[in-house]
Design goal:
CATH architecture: Alpha-Beta Barrel
Number of domains: 1
Oligomer: single chain
Distance between the termini: 16 Å
Order of helices and strands: EEEHEHEEEHEHHEHEHEHEHH
Helix content: 25-40%
Number of helices: 10
Strand order of the largest sheet: 3-4-5-8-9-10-11-12
CATH topology: TIM Barrel
Largest sheet: 8 strands, parallel, barrel
Shape: globular
CATH superfamily: Aldolase class I
Structural class: alpha/beta
CATH class: Alpha Beta
Length: 370
C-alpha cells in the first residue's frame, strides 16, 4: 500500500465524476474487460452468463468501480476466442445478461460491454487448460476466419480468408450485437479493435495481406474498423457513449501497426462517433518483444489525448492509487482501466479512496468497515 500523504477530496482526480454524452460515470476507476472463459460451450445456454459471471461483476460494482466493462462478448459463435466465451448473438443471452446489468447499475456503477470478434485467434482452449488451438474437426472447435490466410502462430490452422460479402456480414453482426446490448440495458458499448483480434488484424499490415479495398493502404486497412463503428452508431442511441479499444502498437520491428497510425485513426474514429479510445498495445504477434513495466502503455494514451483531443483511458500495470492519480492529474488520460489489479482486489477503488482521502459512497451493508 502506498504511504503517500492523503490528497484532499476536492483534488482527487481519480474520484471526480466523468460525463460522456448523457452518461455520468461516478469516478475514474474503471474495470477493463477481462475474459472469464466460463460460459457453456454449446446447447441452449451457449454463450450465456452463469453464477460465476454474476458474482464476478457484482463484486467489482460493490467494490466501487465507476464503470464495469464486461469481458469480450462475441457477436457470433465463430467470433468467440474460446468455446467458453460470453456471447450476445441471440435473445436468450440478452435475457441472461439483464440481471447482471441491473445489479451493477443498482450499485451506482455504469454498465458497459465490449463486443468482439476473435478473428484468427478463435477456437482456443481456456488459458488454464493451456490456451491451445482446438482442432477445427474436434468437438467445440471450428476454423477461424481472418482478413488473410495467415495463422497467428506457425503450426496453427490456416484461417479462412474472408470474402467481401462475409466482411459485410460481420459488420452487420456487430450492429446487431450493439442493438442487443441496448436491450439488455448497457449504457456503454466498447468495440474491441485491439490485441490481434479481427479488427486489429485488418488494421495491421503484419496480418492483413489483402489487395482489395480492405488491404494495403492505411485507408483500406482502417475501412473495416470504420464500417463497424458506423454500423454500431446507427443502432446505438445517440445519447449513449461508444468506446473503441485499440492496440496502439504491435511492438514489431517489421511491418506492423504503429503509434503514428493510432493517432491518425483516433481522429477518424472521433469523426465517426467514438467518444473515448481505450488504449492498450500488442497481442497481434506472439514474437513481439513488449517492454512490460509499470504504466508502460500510458504514453500511448497520453499521445492520443495530446494530439487529437479525443478522450482516452489508460491501462497496463497501473496498480497503486498514487500512480493512477498522477496519470490523471498530469493530463495523460481521462480515466484509468484496471484489469488484473481488480482480479486481485475487487475493492481497489475503496482502498484508493481511503488512501487519497477522497469521498466515496459505501453500501450501507459495508459502511461499518470503512
Amino acid at each position: 500500500m502506498s504511504t503517500a500523504a492523503a490528497v484532499p477530496a476536492e483534488f482527487a482526480a481519480l474520484f471526480a465524476p466523468y460525463t460522456l454524452r448523457s452518461v455520468t460515470i461516478p469516478n475514474r476507476v474503471w474495470m477493463a474487460p477481462m475474459c472469464q472463459y466460463s460460459a457453456e460451450p454449446d446447447g441452449p445456454a451457449a454463450g450465456a452468463p452463469g453464477e460465476w459471471h454474476f458474482a464476478h461483476y457484482a463484486a467489482r460494482a460493490v467494490g466501487g468501480a465507476g464503470l464495469i466493462i464486461q469481458e469480450a462478448t462475441a457477436i457470433s459463435p465463430e467470433g468467440r476466442i474460446s468455446p467458453y466465451d460470453l456471447g450476445i448473438w441471440n435473445d436468450a443471452q440478452v435475457e441472461a445478461l439483464r440481471p447482471i446489468v441491473a445489479f451493477v447499475k443498482a450499485q451506482g456503477a455504469v454498465a458497459g460491454i465490449q463486443i468482439a470478434h476473435a478473428g484468427r485467434k478463435a477456437s482456443t482452449e481456456s488459458p488454464w487448460k493451456g490456451g491451445r488451438v482446438i482442432d477445427p474437426q474436434a468437438p467445440h472447435g471450428w476454423l477461424p476466419s481472418a482478413p488473410s490466410a495467415v495463422p497467428f502462430r506457425e503450426g496453427d490452422p490456416v484461417p479462412h480468408e474472408l470474402t467481401v460479402d462475409e466482411i459485410h456480414g460481420i459488420v452487420a453482426e456487430f450492429a446487431a450485437a450493439a442493438g442487443r446490448a441496448r436491450e439488455a440495458g448497457y449504457q456503454v458499448v466498447e468495440i474491441h479493435g485491439a490485441h490481434g483480434y479481427l479488427i486489429g488484424e485488418f488494421l495491421s499490415p503484419h496480418s492483413n495481406r489483402r489487395t482489395d479495398a480492405y488491404g494495403g493502404s492505411f485507408e483500406n486497412r482502417a475501412r473495416f474498423a470504420l464500417e463497424v463503428v458506423d454500423a454500431v452508431r446507427t443502432v446505438w442511441p445517440e445519447e449513449l457513449p461508444l468506446f473503441f479499444r485499440i492496440s496502439a502498437t504491435d511492438w514489431l520491428e517489421e511491418a506492423g501497426w504503429t503509434a503514428d497510425e493510432t493517432v491518425r485513426l483516433a481522429g477518424l474514429l472521433e469523426e465517426h462517433g467514438v467518444d473515448l479510445l481505450d488504449v492498450s498495445t500488442g497481442g497481434l504477434a506472439p514474437h513481439a518483444e513488449i517492454p512490460v513495466g509499470p504504466g508502460f502503455q500510458v504514453p500511448f494514451a497520453a499521445r492520443v489525448k495530446a494530439e487529437t483531443g479525443l478522450p482516452v483511458a489508460a491501462v497496463g500495470l497501473i496498480t497503486e492509487p498514487e500512480q493512477a492519480e498522477k496519470i490523471l492529474a498530469n493530463g495523460e488520460a481521462d480515466a484509468i482501466l484496471l484489469g488484473r489489479e481488480l482480479l486481485r482486489d475487487p475493492y481497489w477503488a475503496r482502498r484508493a479512496a481511503a488512501e487519497l482521502g477522497a469521498a466515496a459512497s459505501v453500501p450501507g451493508q459495508y459502511a461499518r468497515a470503512w
